[in-house]
Amino acid sequence: GENVEQHPSTLSVQEGDSAVIKCTYSDSASNYFPWYKQELGKGPQLIIDIRSNVGEKKDQRIAVTLNKTAKHFSLHITETQPEDSAVYFCAASKTDKLIFGTGTRLQVFP
Amino acid sequence: DTAVSQTPKYLVTQMGNDKSIKCEQNLGHDTMYWYKQDSKKFLKIMFSYNNKELIINETVPNRFSPKSPDKAHLNLHINSLELGDSAVYFCASSQEMDNQPQHFGDGTRLSIL
To answer: Could you write out the DSSP letters of every residue in A14-55?
Structure first.
């Protein structure tokens, strides 16, 4: 079955810096890769997703890149703000089952 | 106007008891899910339903029984609660089954004493 690895597990950055979170997946048939942000006491919230027919997608300060050959995908957050502090999850899917990474706790210091 | 709502938010109970968690979505989605998030924040799917039909049953003990009375509701009943059932349980929904954005509720924190 699919396995998703996520790194780093924690990430601390200064406000205004960029943050990058990386994931690898094992099943080459996976074709949908969403990213979720989970704030304390809340459910995961979708922030961006990418499908396997696209190499990069951007939404304001957030971008995701996908390398199908290497089975890697990454989340890039530019100009980080304190409100970006949360746990971020990547996930991979080929049908109806999302397999989540282990999460990255991002702390943005003012 | 909450999209996916779960009740209760917190559930504290004794080992051996039976409890239920309710979930409702007002997004008009066809597919609903239950996830379990353990103390290390690991999120794992338990069940999915599409148009009231069970699609995924991810090797969950049969003490866990989901029920979908209609497309907008997916409840989770747990019998004979064990210490290892302590976790946060999330309900989610998506427009269709395959590779669709999933919308999560805010979770039910279950604590077994």
So the answer is: ETTS-EEEEEEES-TT--EEEEEEE-TTS--EEEEEEETT-S
